[in-house]
UniProtKB/TrEMBL annotation:
This is 1,2-phenylacetyl-CoA epoxidase subunit A. Residues 311-332 are annotated as: Disordered. Residues 321-332 have a biased composition (Low complexity). The gene is paaA. NCBIfam families: PA_CoA_Oxy1 (TIGR02156). It holds the Pfam family PaaA_PaaC.
Length: 332
């Protein structure tokens, strides 16, 4: 967004008002002045989040046509549709910062903006639908509940609604896994195999360790992020261990154990080189996910053109209806 530059004395006043709002834990709203780096960080994070929701439809969407029952299909359809909705709320929140959805889409499709690493892993069995709900949406909840209190108003309000829906997603995943664990030994093995594949990538969703997270400190000072990557990762592990026990699955980490002194679970180190590779574009499904998204975008061109033509025509009709008539009779 191009804003009229403030004079230096004005800028100081505006910066002081911004700092005071952040210090009070109040919200910054779109009409408020904000420093450019704050705006850029928000665009980066919210866009990446929106793209994740949209790309995140693909791994599960893969199973809609092969759901094992009508009930499972209806649940999965509803969930994948919710993800599209989350993407839209987030693109709309990002648009309040002066970038258009078309620009953001272009940045995603040309690889200049990122999306979550987790969606670059394949979904190889129906158990993965349950595991994504339980672990991936579980991690998303841990990460996103604090974002309901983020300092930028439109982002925080979008997150409130998203978190309510994520909670349903997490429960449906856990319920699916619980059903499979009560089934045959083959079904139990499918669940364990799926958890083995998704555990470490789920821990990586929280980002690099705090010592290697270039954005965390500033984002936390601005109240964009309320917790560090490592704090949220720890919270997720502590929340998930008892759930795994209730489910009867083993989490694939020999270093996982309760630490009485810390009051938290100790756990092993994720493979940070793997996270870096996936973020760089070298994960198992990066190329496939982007190719699919590009094709869907091109296939949808006629819908965008039709919607634009309809909006223009409606605006023209409204202008004509509002214009005074030349006969002086008024009205139509
Ligand atoms: N994947 O300084 P850092 C969902 C990047 S949607 C890819 O710690 P920051 C769901 C990071 O962007 C899940 N990239 O960054 C949807 C940065 O790169 P740049 C998405 C990652 O921003 C459908 C660099 O690494 N959730 O759950 O302070 C179905 C250094 O990192 C990742 C959100 O987007 C990663 N995992 O913290 C089911 C939540 N981690 O941009 C489920 C909102 C780091 O400087 N986002 N990077 O080049 C956040 O909370 C934060 O952006 C992050 C990263 C914690 C992810």
């Amino acid at each position: 967004m191009t804003t009229t530059p403030a004079r230096p004395d004005q800028e100081e006043r505006l910066q002081a008002a911004f700092d005071a709002t952040i210090a009070r834990h109040d919200r910054i709203e779109p009409r408020d002045w904000m420093p450019d780096p704050y705006r850029r960080t928000l665009v980066r994070q919210i866009a990446q989040h929106a793209h994740s929701e949209i790309i995140g439809m693909q791994p599960e969407g893969n199973w809609i046509g092969r759901a094992p029952s009508l009930r499972r299909k209806a649940i999965l359809l509803a969930k994948v549709q919710d993800e599209a909705g989350h993407g839209l709320y987030l693109y709309a929140a990002c648009e309040t910062l002066g970038v258009s959805r078309a620009e953001l889409t272009e940045l995603l499709l040309t690889g200049r903006q990122k999306y979550s690493s987790i969606f670059n892993y394949p979904t190889l069995s129906y158990a993965d639908v349950g595991t994504i709900g339980w672990l991936v949406d579980g991690a998303a909840i841990c990460n996103q509940v604090p974002l309901c209190r983020t300092s930028y108003g439109p982002y925080g309000r979008a997150m409130i609604r998203i978190c309510k829906e994520e909670s349903f997603h997490q429960r449906q995943g856990y319920e699916l896994l619980m059903t499979m664990m009560r089934g045959t030994s083959e079904q139990r093995a499918m669940v364990q195999e799926s958890v083995d594949r998704f555990w470490w990538p789920a821990l990586m969703m929280f980002g690099p360790p705090d010592t290697q997270s270039p954005n965390s400190e500033r984002s936390m000072a601005w109240g964009i992020k309320r917790n560090s990557n490592d704090e949220l990762r720890q919270k997720f592990v502590d929340m998930t261990v008892p759930q795994a026990e209730a489910l009867g699955v083993t989490l694939p980490d020999p270093g996982l154990r309760w630490n009485e002194e810390r009051g938290h679970h100790d756990f092993g180190e994720p493979d940070w080189a793997e996270l870096a590779a996936v973020i760089r574009g070298d994960g198992p499904c990066n190329a496939q996910r982007l190719a699919h998204r590009r094709a869907a975008h091109e296939d949808g061109a006629w819908v965008r053109e039709a919607a634009t033509a309809f909006a223009e025509r409606s605006a023209q009709d409204r202008t004509e209806a509002a214009a005074p008539t030349t006969t002086g009779e008024g009205g139509r």
